[in-house]
Design brief:
The protein is mainly beta and about 190 residues long. Helices cover about 0% and strands about 45% of the residues. Strands 3-4-5-6 form a four-stranded antiparallel β-sheet, with no helix packed on it. The two termini are about 20 Å apart.
């Protein structure tokens, strides 16, 4: 018997579970009234990617009490930002139909990174560090087929779609590094 499970997770607000609470209750820590697609922590900050009327990326440095919208040079037309990743002091954001953006700490604003691949829509970003140094993008191609692209640097993207479903979208990517020379790295998609 073959079992197929698909997960679709949209977080309507960022919630935290406090172990200090005797009731183990979830508490909303914002940004309020905004759909959050993804979040990452980097150093002492938390970043959230959003869509809707305030599509973009938000940052908090105080555990969610105050949020700052990082909008400099991002599209201002309600573009959904659906995935975040960090690498080498930079924050990367996938704009669903607009490619990928990077925020370099020393610049303080976003820069568009052209992505030449067969992906029509990007939904997930994954960086795998040493010794492989690969970047992966997941999403959908023309006609709604799932797609994954890979690059050793961010300039030359290669499609690696053999064996993917004929319909759907790649919403998440995760890598597992194994201490086995037969299969040293596995990338899982969902």
């Amino acid at each position: 018997m073959k079992i197929s499970i698909q997960f679709l997770a949209i977080i309507y607000s960022l919630l935290i579970l406090s172990s200090a609470s005797a009731q183990n209750e979830w508490t909303s820590v914002g940004p309020s009234d905004i759909v959050i697609h993804d979040f990452i922590s980097y150093e002492s900050s938390l970043f959230a990617s959003t869509n809707g009327n305030h599509g973009g990326v938000y940052q908090t440095d105080d555990f969610g009490n105050d949020w700052t919208e990082l909008y400099e040079l991002l599209p201002s037309d309600n573009t959904p930002f659906v995935s975040l990743a960090s690498r080498d002091g930079e924050i990367y954001a996938a704009a669903q139909f607009r490619g990928m953006y990077v925020r370099r700490e020393f610049l303080g604003y976003w820069v568009n990174i052209p992505v030449e691949s067969d992906l029509q829509s990007i939904h997930s970003i994954l960086f795998v560090e040493e010794p492989w140094n690969r970047a992966f993008l997941g999403g959908s191609r023309l006609k709604g087929t799932a797609g994954v692209s890979m690059a050793e640097d961010l300039d030359e993207w290669i499609s690696i779609n053999d064996g993917l479903p004929l319909s759907g979208t790649v919403h998440s990517l995760i890598a597992t590094i194994l201490l086995c020379m037969l299969q040293p790295m596995l990338v899982f998609i969902g």
